Amino acid sequence: MLLAVLFFCRPVAAMADNCSGYTGYTSLGSCSQAGEWQYDSTNATYKYCNGTHYVSMAGTATATACTQAGDFRISGGANQFCNGSVWVDIPLQKINGYCSVTSSDPTLAGRMEYNTTTNTLDQCMGTTNTDADNWYIMNKPGPDGPGGGFVTGKCVFVTSTFYQGNLGGVAGADALCQGRATAAGLGGTYKAWLSSSNPNDPGSSFTKSTTPYIRLDGAIIANDWTDLTDLSDLNAAINVTEYGTQVSPSGGWCRTYACTLSNGNYCGLGAAYTCNGWTDSTATYSSRASNCQAVNDGSWSNGFSGGLVHDCNNSARLMCFEQ
Questions:
Q1: What domains lie within the chain, and their CATH numbers?
Q2: Residue 21 reports pLDDT greater than 50
Q3: What DSSP string runs through 202-249?
Q4: Three-state SS for 34?
Q5: Which of 58, 113, 50 is nearest to 244 (CA)?
Q6: pTM higher than 0.70 for the full model?
Q7: What SS3 state is found at 157?
Q8: CB atoms within 10 A of CB 204
């Protein structure tokens, strides 16, 4: 599985892939003031707020010693901060755009601004107004930096809302997922990871993505459909809602309806474990509940390894995938 990456889901319905970004990010908690940046003594790094989450600005540690954690400097054309023991480089990636450095306004060199288009903290590194493309993203390794690059993919979330077993069938569950995505301003078409029969299951009805499946807080769940359904562990649990917030399950379980094997196929347990085809909200029927906190095969989807049976008069969430 690919390492975690921070992405941004954009509310543009016409886009084929609504999650996009650059590799090289680490999320350091939630925030709301886009452009704010500060030193994080717990994680020994500078971080900035992209409007929803703090993003680490750490790059490669140098061999040069320092003692004052949080000190910031420019050395050899590189931004560096002190982590308490050594200076750490902040990766720079050149992007298009003049920052209009002139002899009459030399203070623009080194200025940092928040870019609301790319959700990044950018810095002017030019020295004259003839320097082309002298804006730099301060912390994104990409095509011009050490590894990584721009990627796009399909958004995945677990619903912030709960439902009893009568979902209106699989089609009704798809509509619920679409409703949650619309409420959160997400573009694209969404379907529920849910089965009631074969071929009424994700393996038959989903568009099989060749791009990554991405959580709204930035983690890659799987590299593509093949990676998602290869019966190996997920890279990250599907435990973040349509609003980009992580759920807080009771007792470590985040119950989700599924009756779907982790290869995308129907679990084959019949009406007794699918709330009668997802049309019943009484204790007469049950569902094989999955755990959205899990990444291991068998628990993130069908829940067989946990053996959790969920009566249909209780409530659970849905896992929703952009198509």
A1: 24-146 (no CATH), 151-322 (3.10.100.10)
A2: no
A3: HHHHS---SS-EEETTS-EEESSHHHHTSSS--SS-S-B-TTS-B---
A4: coil
A5: 50
A6: no
A7: strand
A8: 13
